[in-house]
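Translate sequence into structure tokens.
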Amino acid sequence: MTKIMRRPRVRALIAATAVAGGLVLATAQPAHAGSYRSPFYSTLSACNAARPAHVSSWTSPGPCRAVTNTQGQVSWYFTVQTRTS
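Result follows.
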């Protein structure tokens, strides 16, 4: 292993790989969950009543939205957005 490190091209390749890895880590965006969907609620009032439980310093619930299944039954849900730093 020590003999291979004496080659200039190998040293340059290792140095370039280290610099590229450092740039990737330095410029990476912070990880975040994005958004998620709440459970389904049977009524609009139940959906609106559940929204305040999802308010925090890093999350904010969106408005309730209706969704209809294949049998024509209406359910309500909302999406929760997570904030990035």
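Note: The first helix runs from residue 8 to 26.
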